[in-house]
Amino acid sequence: MEGLLEEVKKFEPRIIELRRRVHQNPELAYHEVKTASLVANVLRSLGVEVTTGVGGTGVLGVLKGTGPGKVVALRADMDALPVEEMVNLPFKSKVKGVMHACGHDSHVSMLLGAAMLLAKRRRDLRGRVKFLFQPAEEHGGRGGAKPMIEDGVMEDPRVNYVFGLHISNRVPSGAFGLRGGAFMAAPDAFKITMIGRGGHGSAPHETVDPIFVAAQVIVALQGISSRMIDHVKPFVISVCSIHSGTKSNIIPDEAVLEGTIRTLDEVTRRKAVAKVRDVAQTVASALTDGMKVVEMDPILGGEDFSRFLQKAPGTFYYLGTLNKSKGCVYPNHSSKFKVDEDVLKYGSVSLANLALEFARR
Ligand SMILES: [Zn+2]
Ligand SMILES: [Zn+2]
Prior knowledge:
- By secondary structure, the protein is of the alpha+beta class.
- It has 8 helices and 14 strands.
- It has 2 domains: 240 residues, Aminopeptidase; 115 residues, Alpha-Beta Plaits (2-Layer Sandwich).
- The site of one zinc ion has 4 residues, from loops.
């Protein structure tokens, strides 16, 4: 590790430059075309075997070591978010309404930095390293890990260990965040559509008012955490969007609620999803005749690194970038999210070190 910390100094300016280039040209989920081609070019220049168009816009790189050993996969996600950047940086996003607000630009550059270190250390490297540059991590539905796995990135040769790194403003700059067991929550998105019967705002008794029902459903959903889920099991439910109506005197026909459920174990997850469905339907039918609740879609999305972990053991860990003096204090997904670039080298070193250590096991 010490040796790598010394070596990475040479690559640091390049790592930062790459991060800025990606930051300035953010691309949304499944559209990571420029990012993927930049990644492919850098990998090729390092002598890494490259396959593009993996799982859509993903890139797979394979670096062969000099002796027999294990296959270690290192993953970075490449997509940006539909957020207007509110940070004034010389390398601010050039794409209106799109920003690397989750730090995936730094993930790309740190993994390329790890590739630079590993390519230089090829003599010491056993086995093989697979670099997985994944699209669409932020996409709630299919995500990008699944299509990459379907395209065979975890097979031939079979991956023995897989690691992923995420930058975070919850951890102090330069520190790593790790946890044994389940780390990230399973994020299930839900969408509840209440279909009533609209009418004039002055005569609600002649209507089936979906807004009134939606309000009761929101309150009742909070009862799931306090009354239906074991309190020692982590569980969060939040309604994050509510859409209905067009005018102050019209009771609309429908109301749509969307939100997220976070759980850490599969049993709680299944129970919570079922309870949300139950509560929405029970409240709606208790309050009105003629109210229909439809489209309760749990979607597994969010941090889909877990899909790789279903195929091989490994870990997902955080690298802190919380630094008050540099204004790196806003959380991931904020329009003011800012990365402390001085920590990028530690990310590259940690990834390279994991590959070197686990490949010789
Ligand atoms: Zn994110
Ligand atoms: Zn992220």
